[in-house]
Amino acid sequence: RSSDLVSAAKSGYVFNNQTATTGTSVDMGNTAGNCWGIDFVNVSTLTGSGTPEDPYLIGSLADFNILISDPVFWDDCIRLECDIELSTQYYSAVISPDTNVDVAGFQGTRFSGTFDGNGHKISNMYINPPNDNYSMDYNYSYLGLFGKIGYGATIKNVCLENCYVTGEDYSVYVGGLVGYNYKATIRNCCVNGHVDSEDNVSYVGGFAGFNYQGNISGCCSNCTVDVEDNSNYTGGFIGMNRDGTVSNCYARGNISFDGYPSSYVGGFAGSCKLGEIENCYSTVSIEDFPAYYV
User: Which residues, 6+ apart, have CB-to-CB distance to 119 below 8 Å?
Assistant: First the structure.
């Protein structure tokens, strides 16, 4: 079964006495006249089995790099065992990025597992896509530690320190922790850093860009949020809360602006439609902001 083969690849099994290495194929033999083979993209192993009782453990930067490079882990349970200090410039989200900027909508693999930061922090995350176009048809979007998290996912107990995330012209869904939250749960997380954008960017927040029918609780952001010409839905914590619930959260920092007027700007949320924001507050200052609906 395909699920058995994926599990075996995660566990580093050897098939037919052949060692699986990255970029090679392993002959599975002939069964009922059918010749089977597997192409192994990443057979590095993580400690654990990915279940709630035995999650994959991230105990080093090397482990973290295995996690972010292979979507096969993104529907499993993950737990940090140490602080992670990053030193790489990323052009897209670190986990679950959009993989085709030429096609509208999210083209990657959504994170649908459980990511437990276990009280640890991830520092110096730097996301800075190349700003080499000025077209609505070509852009880097879904930016943050997580590009898009999906139904059933849980992100908890992690703090981002000294993060920097920037959206290029016409990017959408830009946040420190997550670009787009689709019906997932986020709790007890914080973001400290800088979220930036170029012209015509939509849904920008210090913590999250967009929350659709998701639940965010007990979280905070302390960010400088900078936006430029004609940007829409900018919040110190979240750009847009659509039919979701945000509770017991707060935002600190400031929002600054450079250029032509923007629309829908808030110290906590750029906009909230059909959703609930409960027991939250913001001390975010909004500086020199020529905008509609502030």
Answer: 157
Degrees, nearest 5: CA angle 163-43-77? 55
Exposed, middle or buried, 136 (CB in 10 Å: 0-12/13-18/19+)? exposed
Residue with tokens 């654990």: 48
Residues whose CB is less than 8 angstroms from the CB of residue 267 and which lie 6 or more positions away in sequence, other chains included = 235, 236, 251, 255, 282, 283, 284, 285, 286
* β-pair partners for 210: 180, 240
pTM here is 0.84
User: In one letter, which amino acid is 8?
Assistant: A
CB 63 within 8 A of CB 40: no
What DSSP string runs through 31-48?
A: ETTEEEEEEES-----BS
Query: In the block, which residue shows the tokens 């930067």?
Result: 61
Neighbouring residues of 171: CB distance < 8 A, sequence distance ≥ 6: 129, 139, 140, 141, 143, 197, 198, 201, 202
Label residue 266 exposed, middle or buried (CB < 10 Å: 0-12, 13-18, 19+). buried
Is the pLDDT at 36 greater than 70? The verdict is no
In this structure, are residues 124 and 162 in contact, taking their beta carbons and an 8 Å threshold?
yes
> CA–CA separation, 158 vs 186, rounded Å?
10
Q: Could you report the per-residue pLDDT of 150-199, keeping only the tens digit for each?
A: 999 999 999 999 999 998 888 899 999 999 999 999 999 999 999 988 78
Measured CA to CA, the distance from residue 17 to residue 13 in angstroms comes to 10
